[in-house]
Amino acid sequence: MATPELEPVYLISGSDRPKVELSVRRLRGHFDPTAVEMLDALESSGADAVAACNAMGLFASGGRLVLVRGVERWKADDAKAVAEYLRAPVPGTVLALVGEGLRKDGALVKACAKAGKLLLFDVQRRDLVRWLGEQLARRRVKADPIALRALIATSGDDPAVLANEADKLATWADGDQIDLAAVEQLATPAEPPTWKLTDAWGRREVGAVLQAAQELLERSASPRSQVVPRIANAVVKEVQLVRACQAFKEQGIPPAEAMKRLKRRSEYPVRKAYELGDRFDREELRHTLVRLSELDRALKGGSRLPDELELMRALADITRPRDRVER
User: Fold this and answer.
1) CA-to-CA distance for 223 and 228, rounded, in angstroms?
2) How confident is the model at residue 125, as a pLDDT?
3) For 140, what's the count of Cα atoms within 13 Å in the CB-facing half-sphere?
């Protein structure tokens, strides 16, 4: 049987990836390596994880562990299968679910909290400089606080990204102090811009839109589970801006005044939206937002298709002229 103090399920998540991985290693340390089954949520469903737990229980002479990574990819049916299993989990078997960006009010998190234990390790933005210093200290490397603030400004505030950047800088420093010059030379910018994608949408070029989306997915330092919603949100904001500018133009309001009303810092995106408003009629933009709301539901568990595929399908739909889109 599993060690008495272990829970039947652990959900391990959070933006502090080093602590997440440490917790995974400690949990695995309770079990013989031959008693651990590793699954990936990209290939295994919630039902598959439950089947692995049940199968292990049939042959378990000691503690057993089913470890599933990437559970942020799971949908509603997967969470339901796990919740049903946790009503009567197999004695001696521990289910460990590891993911990123999980909603605390999600069905999977609630089910695990009720039946087992949540191990959530998040880093607050106000603590990032201190946290980065701690990560480097473990590597026996010191850094100028100014350099750490510059790293955050350059690479963003995603701790997973910053942890990778810190590892890169520590390797480069080889024991020396990391200064501002090192950050300026080596740090990777946070996220590629989405303007290439939205410009292609405005030109109604499906191929260019899909290519731009693929480039964003490949070039981003963040996990794809986070990049897909960001791309979708960027497109939604662009469509909303075009609709607003379309209405301003009909009222005779110039771009400079629209910029003030929209509280924008730059007039260029507003002028661009005015131009795009001439290429789409109001009904088409309304249908575009409806299609993007369908994408949002799919990304939040309403589809069993991979998120990237749902994104690409939606982008193709909203870029083609409406008379060529069969719904």
Assistant:
1) 9
2) 80
3) 2
